[in-house]
Amino acid sequence: MIALLLFAALPLIPGVRQPQLASDGATVALAYSDGKVLSVALSNDGGASFGTSSAVAGGAFMVGRHRGPRVVVRGQQVAVSAIADGTLLAWNSRDGGKTWSQASSVNDVAKSAREGLHGMAVGPKGELFAVWLDLRSPGMKVYGALSTDGGAKWSNRLVYASPGGSVCECCHPSVTIDGLGQIHVMFRNSLDGSRDMYLASSKDGGKTFAAAKLGEGTWKLNACPMDGGGLVMGPAGPMTVWRRDGKIHATDEIGEGKDPAMAVGPDGKAVYGWTRGGEVIVDGQSMGPGGFISLTGGPQVVAAWETPGGIRVQRLR
């Protein structure tokens, strides 16, 4: 754990939920929705300030319990995704969020993404990879899709089908892409009565994946905890944080709570956030009432989370 250096928080953004952050150098992107409008705000000073929010699109977007938008940024390319009526939709901007493309459909089977849980990542060549919980056939599966043209067209492929018949039904998947273009997907499995986290990796652009369980021990549970954890790319490879029972785990157990997230700071070390007793915790320090924290790293670490009065955005260090 580290002692946080807290910078002034930005004003609350009322009436919206499920903030998600992404960054590339000093550029930080913030996506959120009130269920009717999907919005993105950009910062060019490491999250110290944000410009006027851009209304990307309107619709009946799913929000709540990690069912919110996702955003990625690389240079002037910004992409955002959200689920409406069972379809995973994506929009792309090539001018730093000034203008946006029309929506493209990511999943190629109608309403197969109706559980509303997904993730998205951008690779070293600007390629996009989205993952989601898919119901195109009996049993929940993890599907993914690759786009090499900025999100205009997507190629679907199966990431993982559990031999137990279904992965965990309501835990969001996460995805990251390393500097070699290798894709890493984290999800919660449902296998032999256990709800453990797995990491599936692909060395061939998402054509095939090899999956392995994370951590020692197991969580015997006949229910879905609705908690998918966090996945980021660290200096030496993918880094994960996740919940087992009421404990938060990374390399070791790091605290009590749920809904963990993480980022890698400028020193290459992980910063962890989660919810405990109705409060947001970042590296052991309470940030006040709220939940569903999102973190992004790089030259700075920025956090965003839900509070009773709206979304709070806080630059940490």
Structure description:
By secondary structure, this protein is mainly β. The protein has a single domain (17-315), classed as Neuraminidase (6 Propeller), CATH 2.120.10.10. Helices cover 0% and strands 49% of the residues. It is built from no helices and 27 strands. The strands form 7 sheets. It has a 4-stranded antiparallel β-sheet, with no helix packed on it. A 4-stranded antiparallel β-sheet has the order 5-6-7-8, with no helix packed on it. The model has no long low-confidence stretch (mean pLDDT 94).
Concise overview:
The protein is mainly beta and 317 residues long. 0% of the residues lie in helices and 49% in strands.
In which range does the helix fraction lie? under 10%
> In terms of structural class, how would the helical and strand content be classed?
mainly beta
Strands across the major sheet, in which order? 1-2-3-4
The biggest sheet, with number of strands, parallel, antiparallel or mixed sense and barrel status, is: 4 strands, antiparallel
Q: What spatial form do the alpha-carbon principal axes imply?
A: globular
Helix-strand string: EEEEEEEEEEEEEEEEEEEEEEEEEEE
Per CATH, the architecture is 6 Propeller
Mean pLDDT: 94
Query: In DSSP terms, counting alpha (H) and pi (I) runs of 4 or more, how many helices?
Result: 0
**Rounded radius of gyration (Å):** 18 Å
CATH topology: Neuraminidase
Low-confidence stretches: none
How many domains? The number is 1
SS strand fraction? over 45%
CATH class: Mainly Beta
